[in-house]
Every structure is written in structure tokens, then in C-alpha cells.
Write a structure and sequence with these properties.
The chain is built from seven helices and seven strands. It is α/β, with parallel strands linked by helices and 202 residues long. The chain folds into two domains: 93 residues, Aldolase class I (TIM Barrel), CATH 3.20.20.70; 94 residues, Aldolase class I (TIM Barrel).
């Protein structure tokens, strides 16, 4: 995948509480860090995320994102991530309005919009996410901010153009990459579609 042009490795961390699934933790991130040089984008779909920021940073996470819905003291958590030398992101679920992020946008490096309900791969893209991407891009322009927009869920050849044209810059794809057994070829096709869409947007 990396040889084919992928530039970030997105790592989904789930605790079986905030989302109905359990995945991996800091030891796997540390193992990945030994073999890849691209940024490790750790998406913490967990409760009490602040308790684990240091462990993921120590394991080699370059980007750490936390859910607005799971963090009571979101500003404190974002500050903690930055204090550990990582880029800080905030995530919102499909039913959470972009407006809930108004007071944190100037403190984050990126915003991750979930375009499926988090917890399981292979879900279909939720179309109303496109409006949320546009809304977020408009807020960024109005306030002269520089955070990047990331989208995760249902990103494939049938959705990637619309997502890019709406304003997304970081695209997370799982099923569309791993299906068919040729992940390198799949990555190349997705990147080509994204670049074409970006040119059309310009």
C-alpha cells in the first residue's frame, strides 16, 4: 500500500465500550512503528481517552484523534496530545453536528468526520456527510483556520470524488483497499480518482 502511494497509516483503536468492538492498543502501534516510516494516525474510539494519550505517543503515534462525544474535557485532551508532540484531531460521529466543534476548531490540526457509524468496517457511506464536509470547509475559510478535513467510512471508487470535491483532504479507506486481494492496485485507483476530483474542484 505504501509503495502504491498511501501516505498515512490509519489505526482504529476500539475499546468495546464507546463502540461495539475491540481492536488494538499501544503494543501494536509500537510494532508498526518499527516497520513503517509514514505517520501513524491513531483514531481513539474509546472512553477515557486522556488516560491513554501518553501510551500511544510513546508507542510512536504521530497523529492522535479523539471523539468529541467521548471527551468531557475536550480542550484539555487536545492540549495533552500536543504536549506529547503529536498532531491533535477531533472526531464526530454521523449524528453529531459540526456546530459542536465551534470552540475547538482553532486548537486542532485536523477534524475527522465519520461517514459511517463507528465500530465495524464495510459499511455504506452516509450521504449527508457531504453537507458536513462543506460546512466544515466553509467555517475554516470564514475563520482563516488551517485544520485539515479527514473522512472515514465507506470511502471507495463510488464515493471518493464527491468527498474530495466537498472539501476533504485526508481519506481513510479500509474495505475498498483490502477487497480483491490487490491492495496496491486498489490504492493506486483510489488515489487517481481523488486527484482527478481535486483537479475538477480547482
Amino acid at each position: 500500500m505504501l509503495e502504491a502511494g498511501a501516505t498515512v497509516l490509519h489505526v482504529d483503536v476500539m475499546d468495546g465500550h464507546f463502540v461495539p468492538n475491540i481492536t488494538i492498543g499501544p503494543p501494536v502501534v509500537a510494532a508498526l512503528r518499527k516497520y513503517v516510516t509514514v505517520p501513524l494516525d491513531c483514531h481513539l474510539m474509546i472512553e477515557n481517552a486522556d488516560d491513554y494519550i501518553s501510551a500511544f505517543a510513546d508507542a510512536g503515534a504521530n497523529w492522535i484523534s479523539v471523539h468529541q462525544e467521548a471527551c468531557v474535557h475536550l480542550d484539555r485532551v487536545i492540549q495533552h496530545i500536543h504536549s506529547r508532540g503529536a498532531l491533535a484531531g477531533v472526531v464526530i460521529n454521523p449524528a453529531t453536528p459540526v456546530a459542536t466543534l465551534t470552540d475547538i476548531l482553532d486548537a486542532v490540526d485536523y477534524v475527522l468526520l465519520m461517514s459511517v457509524n463507528p465500530g465495524f468496517g464495510g459499511q455504506k457511506f452516509i450521504p449527508r456527510t457531504l453537507g458536513k464536509i462543506r460546512h466544515l470547509a466553509e467555517l475554516r475559510a470564514q475563520r482563516s483556520l488551517s485544520f485539515r478535513i479527514e473522512v472515514d467510512g465507506g470511502i471507495g471508487l463510488d464515493t471518493i470524488s464527491a468527498v474530495v470535491q466537498a472539501g476533504a483532504e485526508i481519506l481513510v479507506s479500509g474495505s475498498a483497499v483490502f477487497s480483491g486481494g490487490n491492495s496496491g492496485h486498489n490504492v493506486q485507483q483510489l488515489l487517481q480518482a481523488a486527484r482527478s476530483a481535486n483537479l475538477q474542484k480547482a
